[in-house]
Design goal:
The protein is of the alpha+beta class and about 475 residues long. It has 2 domains: about 80 residues; about 325 residues, phage-related protein like fold. Helix content is about 40%, strand content about 15%. The strands form 3 sheets. A 7-stranded mixed sheet has the order 6-15-11-7-10-9-8. Strands 1, 2, 5, 12, 13 and 14 form a 6-stranded mixed sheet that branches. Strand 13 and strand 14 form a beta hairpin. Helix 3 packs across helix 4. The longest helix has about 45 residues.
């Protein structure tokens, strides 16, 4: 129902216009029937036309009656609106009263309370972790009260992320204060180099999967064989790509002695928990069975008992060519993702020949360029002559191949490496006690993500084979 008198009047106007259109339509159709009979030279209407004209007259008369009723209803609504406006104007008038303004010290004032856990008071998260542990281990009333206040503050300031995360998980937890997540973000990010260059999207608000429509049968076009002949028609078809939402989790057992004495746990525990979650996420993107990058990338073989950088570089270009052929205008290869041992091995290779074509910004006698300002996961380590930026990621397996001593190099378009997560969402933590007999408390951190490289078949590529065995320097 309309919420205000203006909404009500607007709905009445719509009803009035609809009734007018019904009346005009009936009149127009009657006129059309009469015009047709006149054009045909008929003095009488056919029985069907007589019947239709009678129906139209009934509809027209009903529309007229509706219009009269609607006009009366509109007049009533306009009267109510005028009375409301008059009351509002009267209430807006300022009138003199005998009430005196209260004194300064007689007025209640609302100020901003400080957060329960703050960077200036608890810079390393010691108090937060102590409260988590003591509330679980000892049912500490004061610790429980502080944690309760903290969660209420989170619901006020970051409710959208709490709602989203709780809706996609099977268990609940406490939100890690945001300043602690920010403080340890560089250490966390250092363990997810590939994930940081992926095309990121926010997780859906609920559900345990992300659904994407993939066009599997495209429309068609062809030359018309002759004038007025049928043109090409191909019905489009799609397939649903379902991407599961997964949980990255890490755990750390803290001794009861450390909790009781409250020393030496804050830095190591928070750092370790964040690192574990980041590592599991990045490792999953690269190595997970079936959907991980190593299992979906189109393979380019590099087989050589005595590999060299000069021999490997054409393989990189071949893999990039495969990616571009698969994507065409839908994307382009942007990054070469490799293990640190492969990056330093390539950097060690000497050459007296250079590519025939170099991308802009490279000297003619250059086989690539390293970024001297970059370190592990602080951005691209360098750029190859073909323009591919190099990402070094030690989550790439080094036990592949028949000899279990090979790694792989991945050529990817970052736009087609899709990762769903909440970059500003909280990490969660909870306490368990599976190690009660050994006086230990298990702290578990977890967050949610989803990923896919499967929007386009062969949209990513890799170089693999005996040419990527453990390098010798």
């Amino acid at each position: 129902m309309p919420g205000t008198i203006d909404d009500l009047i607007a709905s009445i106007e719509v009803e009035f216009e609809a009734a007018q259109k019904r009346r005009k339509k009936a009149d127009a159709e009657v006129k059309l029937i009469l015009d047709k009979a006149q054009q045909d030279g008929r003095s009488n209407l056919t029985p069907e036309e007589d019947e239709r004209v009678a129906e139209l007259f009934v509809a027209r008369d009903q529309a007229k009656a509706d219009i009269a009723g609607i006009e009366n209803k509109r007049a009533t609504a306009e009267k109510i609106k005028a009375e409301e406006m008059e009351r509002s104007a009267e209430q807006a008038k300022v009138k003199q009263t005998e009430t005196r303004k209260p004194a300064y010290d007689q007025v209640a004032r609302v100020g901003m309370d400080e957060r329960t856990y703050r960077k200036d008071m608890d810079p390393y998260g010691k108090g937060f972790l102590m409260d988590v542990s003591r509330q679980f281990l000892f049912q500490d009333v004061e610790a429980a009260s502080r944690l309760s206040r903290h969660m209420q503050e989170e619901r006020v300031e970051r409710s959208e992320y709490l709602t989203r995360a709780v809706g996609t998980g099977a268990f609940t937890g406490l939100t890690v204060p945001q300043y602690l997540t920010d403080m340890y973000a560089p250490a966390t990010a250092a363990l997810r180099p590939f994930a940081d260059v992926c095309n990121t999207h926010p997780l859906p608000e609920s559900g345990m999967s992300v659904n994407i429509s993939r066009i599997t049968t495209a429309s068609g076009a062809a030359l018309q064989s002759a004038e007025n002949s049928a043109v090409q028609e191909t019905n489009m078809d799609d397939t649903l790509l379902t991407v599961p939402i997964q949980t990255a989790a890490g755990q750390q057992t803290v001794s009861r002695q450390a909790i009781d004495r409250g020393s030496g746990i804050e830095d190591v525990t928070m750092q370790d928990l964040f690192n574990r979650v980041a590592t599991v996420l990045d490792n999953t993107l690269l190595n997970q069975a079936t959907n991980g990058l190593t299992n979906v990338a189109q393979s380019t073989a590099y087989t050589d008992a005595s590999p060299t950088g000069a021999e490997m570089y054409p393989k990189i270009l071949g893999a990039a060519a495969n990616v571009e052929a698969a994507l065409l205008a839908m994307g382009r290869p942007t990054h070469a993702v490799m293990h640190s041992r492969r990056w330093y091995w390539l950097s060690s290779q000497m050459s007296s020949t250079w590519p025939m074509i170099n991308w802009g910004g490279f000297p003619v006698q250059s086989a690539g360029a390293a970024n001297s300002q970059s370190s592990y996961n602080s951005g691209p380590r360098g750029v190859l002559p073909c323009g591919l930026e190099v990402i070094v990621d030690n989550n790439i397996a080094t036990n592949l191949g028949a000899g279990t001593n090979e790694d792989e190099v991945y050529i990817v378009p970052s736009s087609e490496c899709h990762l769903w997560e909440d970059p500003a969402a909280p990490l969660f933590i909870r306490a368990e006690q599976p190690a009660a007999a050994s006086l230990g408390v298990l702290l578990v951190a977890y967050s949610y993500f989803a990923y896919t490289f499967g929007r386009y078949t062969n949209g990513t590529s890799k170089i693999a084979g005996t040419g990527l065995i453990t390098p010798t320097f």
